[in-house]
Amino acid sequence: MNQLQFIALIAERDALRYTPAGMPIVNAVLQHRSQQMEAGIARLSEFEISAVAAGEISGRFSQAPLAGMYQFTGFLNKKNRNSKSLVFHIIDFSAVPDSSI
């Protein structure tokens, strides 16, 4: 199974564009910060991740306020066929109440 869910803010977002096949797509960078328990010890978890919203969700994602906090659901995949870099593909997202990241 390849499913990832986390809360993050939209740090950067490109303009909505269309692939040569006509699919709407938006690239972005998401930032996450939280405390996680590992082996009974609190650990700070921080990361930035490249993300992409494609298809129907791209329109809603392109209108979401920057720096807003959202719960994202999606999966990881290679950036392209020959890449070793990962990109988070956004399947769904929803606003979360104010909280610090």
From TrEMBL:
Keywords: DNA replication, DNA-binding, Primosome. GO terms for cellular component: primosome complex. Pfam families: SSB_1. It comes from the Bacteria. SUPFAM superfamilies: Nucleic acid-binding proteins (SSF50249). GO terms for molecular function: single-stranded DNA binding. One of its GO terms (biological process) is DNA replication, synthesis of primer. The keyword Nucleotide-binding does not apply. The keyword Chaperone does not apply. InterPro entries: NA-bd_OB-fold, Prisomal_replication_PriB. Involved in the restart of stalled replication forks, which reloads the replicative helicase on sites other than the origin of replication; the PriA-PriB pathway is the major replication restart pathway. During primosome assembly it facilitates complex formation between PriA and DnaT on DNA; stabilizes PriA on DNA. Stimulates the DNA unwinding activity of PriA helicase. Homodimer. Interacts with PriA and DnaT. Component of the replication restart primosome. Primosome assembly occurs via a 'hand-off' mechanism. PriA binds to replication forks, subsequently PriB then DnaT bind; DnaT then displaces ssDNA to generate the helicase loading substrate. Belongs to the PriB family. This is Replication restart protein PriB. It comes from Rugamonas rivuli.
